[in-house]
Amino acid sequence: MEAQTVIELGREAIWMALRVGGPVLLTALAVGLIVGLLQALTQIQEQTVVFVPKLLAMILVLSLTLPWLIAQLSQYTTNLIEGIPGRF
Question: According to the 3-state scheme, what is the secondary structure of the chain?
Fold first, then answer.
């Protein structure tokens, strides 16, 4: 296996991880920022207040994007397995 092939496979894997994890992580970031601003405005400095809204928002986004995520992962896996004969 050549170095260029390994680099390409690594780049594809990182890009797929970002695409799959991105929606959930961006949602957690946005909800955490909003709740943090509300905590700063109301001067409620409880660390556990942000946990429940963030968890609920992440579950909601994950349930809405799950069919797309599964399709992306299955397409990536199919392409990876079909490309084995040409890469090795």
Answer: CCHHHHHHHHHHHHHHHHHHHHHHHHHHHHHHHHHHHHHHHHCCCCCCCCHHHHHHHHHHHHHHHHHHHHHHHHHHHHHHHHCHHHHC
Look up the pTM and report it.
0.79
Instruction: Tell me if 2 sits within 8 A of 36, measured CB to CB.
Output: no
Interval 42-66: pLDDT, tens: 888 787 888 999 999 999 999 999 9
Residue 36 CB: number of other CB atoms within 10 A?
12
Tokens of 77: 């896996």
Say how many domains are in the chain: 1
The residue range of the domain holding 72 is: 3-87
| Paired tokens of 2 | 């050549």
